[in-house]
Structure formats: structure tokens, C-alpha cells
Amino acid sequence: MKRLILVLMLLATPLLAVQPDEVLDDPVLEERARELSKGLRCLVCRNESIDESNASLARDLRILLRERLVEGDSDAEAIDFIVDRYGEYVLLNPDMRGANWLLWGAGPLMLLLAGGMGFVYLRGRSKASRQAEAPLSAEEEARLRDILNR
């Protein structure tokens, strides 16, 4: 029974999608490629790195990344090449340059704006003078008694 549980646990571990024909001969370059591919998004799969994805586009990106590293590109140059080709969406963790700072700050900014608006509304509501309700006229009182007596 314990062996069965051990085998099932080993089968449940996440497997990488890198195919044997993609693996580089140089272990240092392969390790760099693996580290870089963990930060690149598969454009077909949602929030899955190209290292984990089995999609054909992810395979193409893995091969392209390895080709760039074999040609002698630094890590930054290889990533910049892929970002130039596919856009910033390919990065799993985009940095805060360009227009991305607006996206990073939009959530906290909206929270502060909504909190401020709620505070102003509640404060204004508590300060508002309550209008005294005018008493019913004689005609309205007669009509009310008529309705209640039916």
C-alpha cells in the first residue's frame, strides 16, 4: 500500500514540457534556458510558462530562446529579442517601465479613490440637516381616516 502511494505521489509531480530534442548539449546553457523560460508566458495557455506548456507555440519559443543563447546572447538580450517579437505579454512578470506603471498602480489608485468617495459621501450624509416632516393637513387626515375605517 505504501509503495502504491509513493508511486502515485511521484506521478502527481509536475512534469516539464521540454522535449529531449530541445535540450542543449551544454549544461550551463541549458540551465540558463530553463531559468529564462520560467519567466516567459505561453501565448496559447493562460499563465503557464513555456517551460511547463505542451503547446506547439511554447515549443517554438523554447527553441528560439535556446537558439539565441547558443548564438551568444546574454539573458537580457535573449529576453529582449523575444519581447520585441511577441510583445510584453510574453513576460509572466512584466516590469514597471513604459505604460506598465499605470497598470501596476491602477488597482491601489482605484481603491484609494473609492475609499475617498465613500468617506466624502458618508461625511456629507451625516452633516445633512434633516428636514422636519410637515404635519398632515385636515384634508389628508380625513382621507387617511376614511381609508383606515374601511
Automatic annotation (TrEMBL):
InterPro entries: C-type_cytochrome_biogenesis, CcmH/CycL/Ccl2/NrfF_N, CcmH/CycL/NrfF/Ccl2_sf. GO terms for biological process: cytochrome complex assembly. It holds the Pfam family CcmH. Keywords: Cytochrome c-type biogenesis, Heme, Iron, Membrane, Metal-binding, Signal, Transmembrane, Transmembrane helix. The keyword NAD does not apply. Residues 6-148 form the CcmH/CycL/Ccl2/NrfF N-terminal domain. One of its GO terms (molecular function) is metal ion binding. One of its GO terms (cellular component) is plasma membrane. The chain crosses the membrane at residues 101-122. Residues 1-17 form the signal peptide. Belongs to the CcmH/CycL/Ccl2/NrfF family. PANTHER family: CYTOCHROME C-TYPE BIOGENESIS PROTEIN CCMH. Possible subunit of a heme lyase. This is Cytochrome c-type biogenesis protein. It comes from Sulfitobacter aestuariivivens.
